[in-house]
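Why do we care about 3D structure at all? Because function follows from shape, and shape follows, mostly, from sequence. That is the central idea of this module. The next example makes it concrete: a single protein chain, its amino acid sequence, and then its structure expressed as tokens.
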Amino acid sequence: MWINEVAPERLAELFHHYHQALAPEISGKGSESGAWKEVPQQEKNRLVAAARLALLELEAMTNRRESRQYFAQPGEAEWGC
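And the structure:
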């Protein structure tokens, strides 16, 4: 499944990148001022934890969708040729 192939660290880095790119410039700083390399380790850890939880939630949603059974209840099926 594709969710298992995504590293939470990479997702967090991408999220940070796009957040910086889409955020309005603050006090004259460009988007480059918030480079991933410059993010404090504690903030990186928090972003990675959030990404890991998001991936787990996406996986759970996908598993629930795949595990649904599309069978009629006894006596509800329409038979005929």
